[in-house]
Amino acid sequence: MSNILISNDDGILALGVRALANTLAQAGHQVTVVCPDRERSATGHGLTLHQPIRAKEIDSVFDDNVIAWSCSGTPADCVKFALSAVLKTRPDFVYSGINHGPNLGTDVLYSGTVSAAMEGVLEGIPSVAFSLASFSFLEFQPAADFALKLVQQMAREYPKPPLLSVNIPPVPTSEITGVLVTRQGLRRYIEKFSKRLDPRGKNYYWLEGEIIEDIEQPEDINLPPHILTDVQAIRDRYITITPLQYNLTDATIVKYLYEQEFQVN
Questions:
Q1: pLDDT tens per residue, range 82-128
Q2: Domain locations in the chain as residue ranges
Q3: 240 within 8 A of 128, measured Cβ to Cβ
Q4: CATH topology for 3-183+218-254?
């Protein structure tokens, strides 16, 4: 059985993390949960540097075999805190989620769910971010069941510790088409800041936006063209597994600038 650290960005009381932790614990895995004490969605990889982090152990929310903590910090804070101050032994895996809402395409740049998993892989621990690709669908068990099955796959030998973003279609298990390894697609927003007045007559702004999803295959010389994007595959009701990395170096532009003998003077 595996030692698994779980975090999220929806908060310690979220249904998704409860389904994930309880499913793994009931299967016999050693599970420790360290999550934000409130929703911290879209915080990216932010850290708390200018105020103290407060944390406390939580009872009665999870299965009796789950050790659970709430933390005042961001998802990345939670994983750092867990690895340094809570766990006595290094976990085999870091799981993040199950997020209530998709993390497809460029969502991963903003996602606290993905950032919690990324914090794990930065420490050399195989890590997975799980997301249920709907804000209205509330059945997390199919995603939790897949997370349980994935434990065995994560135990295999990889060229380096993997960071996987897994999105589960919002349908019953019987309606899931299958599982696909995918590439990151495009999911952009037409953004708008709505100007409003508070009760004291002062202006404030609320970020609004319309989602634009692009299912076209982004060009990548390192990937065969038949690999679908996560955006397209989730539409076809596949569970998508998208391997990510934290190294953002653009090899194409590096090569171009190098060949152009780029000068700043």
A1: 999 999 999 999 999 999 999 999 899 999 999 999 999 999 999 99
A2: 3-183+218-254
A3: no
A4: Stationary-phase Survival Protein Sure Homolog; Chain: A, (3.40.1210)
What pLDDT does residue 218 have? 60
pTM of the model: 0.90
Span 180-210, pLDDT tens digits: 999 998 877 677 788 889 899 899 888 776 6
SS3 11: coil
* Distance (Å, whole) CA 49 – CA 77: 10
**Residue of 3, 1, 81 lying closest to 37 (CA atoms):** 81
Tell me how far apart the alpha carbons of residues 4 and 15 are, in angstroms, rounded to a whole number.
Answer: 18
Average pLDDT, the chain: 91
Peptide bond into 98 cis (omega under 30): yes
On the CB side of 59, how many CA atoms lie within 13 Å of its CA? Answer: 0
Q: Quick one: DSSP state of residue 183?
A: B
Q: What is the DSSP letter of 222?
A: T
Contacts 24+ apart (CB under 8 A), 48-55: 48/72, 48/73, 48/74, 48/77, 53/77, 53/81, 55/81, 55/85
Amino acid at 14: A
Give the SS3 label for residue 221: coil
What is the DSSP pairing of strand 186-197 with strand 203-214?
Answer: antiparallel
Tokens of 61: 């929310």
Beta bridge partners of 95: 6, 128
